[in-house]
Amino acid sequence: MNDNTFDLIIIGSGPAGESAAVNASKHGLKVAVVDARRIVGGNCTHQGTIPSKTLRHSVHSLMKFNRNPMFRAISDPKLLTFQQVMETVEDVIKKQVAMRSRFYTKNDVSFIFGEASFIDKHTISLKNDEEKAQILKAERFIIATGSRPYRPANVDFEHPRVFDSDKVLTLKETPKRVVIYGAGVIGSEYASIFNGLGCKVDLINPGEKLLSYLDDEICDALSYHLRSQGVLIRHNETFESLETADDQVTVKLHSGKVIKTELFLWANGRAGNTESLNLEALGLKANSRGQLKVDKYYRTEVQGIYAVGDVIGAPALASASYDQGRCASSRIVDREHPLLIEDIPTGIYTIPEISSVGKTEKELTEAKVPYEVGKAYFKDTARAQITGEDTGVLKLLFHRETLELLGIHCFGDQAAEILHIGQAIMAQKDGGNTIEYFATHTFNYPTMAEAYRVAALNGLNRL
Question: Is 391 left (phi over 0), alpha (psi -120 to 50) or beta?
Fold first, then answer.
């Protein structure tokens, strides 16, 4: 096998591509990862999860400082610019790239820079700085090219005041007013971030409520909290057009509303990165959003060609993408690997966080499942009172007769961490998954985990 021939080539170095590459190499395959960037990490590290969550953490830290009465006694409230908090982001990205580069070296995975295009199902052409395209061959390929913000044709993203979630990371100045179109995960997270930086924020939602796939009470809690912080939420509003000038952007909605702003952020949908892959050479066709269809083993319709991560659509989470990469590569090396679990936890990094797993009240009601609710409000827990992070609730849904945990929903500081305690109990078999676990086991005090005991007792007292 020569230097340009591999057992497996993975296109894309995000979480899905990285996990697939390391797993396949550990099982004896000669593996290469190709990427249009010169450095590893993919969109997750450079434009998605890592930058936005680091940005959010920095803003959250600033907000905690400003509302802490101890610091108020010795200092006036502080404001940081977008550029200042981005310095932390750049530092974290460098650390992530260095760490992930070591993974490739340690596991003998070749990393090759260039934009990949298929010639046939065993060959790709790689466009890079060389005058002549590099040709690579492999027995199998995994497409893990990720996604990018969807850009409608009638929005001028070249204008310096018009942004999507990739371009916003290049922002140099903090605006006084921001209009965000799209109130999904990205839109809601950036509404929290800009609000924390002291901006006046309008969050325009084409739907009836924020994050409507979540439990209704959690959606309502997020809406209430954002509004209490000064975010103006406009539901059931759809985008019509945009007018740009040097000093402002004018947003026109189909309802007739006209909103003027310094910065416009489009946060309504994402598209798979497949347009440069020359899928026609394989006989493959992506859907209207550039996404590929796969089976439960992440096989496309072409033998030997797999696809994982955001490029296949939902759930489009870094956590799920990592598992998908391992599953696909395990199939290739003839190793058993559990399929992706059905109850994938959701983590949404608004301020405060949201996290959930399992069924919502609406789903259980529609299915006519006899359930009960147990709640613990953060304001009643010692740890939250100590940290000052007392906004939030932990909500447990459980079967009235069997006491089986059916759903866990959390809104508040560290929600994404807190959730995994309950997730572990939900996964237990042979009667181990019941709300009684939390009522009969001792929790460290004071901790946020103690909220499980409070919520369990609250629910059991309703029976």
Answer: beta
C-alpha radius of gyration, the chain, whole number: 24
Tell me 432's DSSP state.
-
Domains of the chain: 5-149+271-332 (3.50.50.60), 162-268 (3.50.50.60), 352-460 (3.30.390.30)
Question: Tell me, what amino acid is at 57?
Answer: H
Q: What angle is formed at CA 76 by the lines to CA 70 and CA 77, rounded to 5 degrees?
A: 90
Spatial strand order of the sheet with 263-266 comes to 162-163, 263-266, 177-181, 200-204, 232-234
Distance CA 394, CA 418 (A): 9
Q: Is the separation of the CB atoms in 10 and 33 below 8 Å? A: yes
DSSP 121-181: TTEEEEESSSSSPEEEEEEEEEE---EEE---TTS-TTSTTEE-TTGGGG--S--SEEEEE
Q: Is 45 within 8 Å of 130 (Cβ atoms)?
A: no
Interatomic CA distance for residues 197 and 440, integer angstroms: 43
Which SS3 state, helix, strand or coil, does residue 372 take? strand
Specify the DSSP element, H or E, that contains 387: helix 382-387
Over the chain, what is the mean pLDDT? 93
Chain centroid offset of residue 360 CA: 20
* Nearest residue to 370 via CA among 401, 326, 325, 391: 401
pLDDT tens track for 164-214: 999 999 998 899 999 999 999 999 999 999 999 999 999 999 999 999 999
Place of tokens 């894309």: 12
Tally of helices (H runs) and strands (E runs) in the chain: 13, 22
Torsion of CA 206, 207, 212, 217, to 10 degrees: 110
pLDDT band, residue 63 (cuts 50/70/90): confident
Cis? peptide before 370, omega within 30° of 0? no
pLDDT confidence bin for 132, thresholds 50/70/90 = confident
Q: 120: which 2 tokens?
A: 């046939």
Assign 411 to helix, strand or coil: strand
Contact between residue 56 and residue 349 where contact means Cβ atoms under 8 Å apart = yes
- E strand intervals along 314-453: 346-348, 354-358, 371-377, 392-399, 405-412
222: which residues sit within 8 A by CB, 6+ positions away? 188, 210, 211, 350, 354, 411
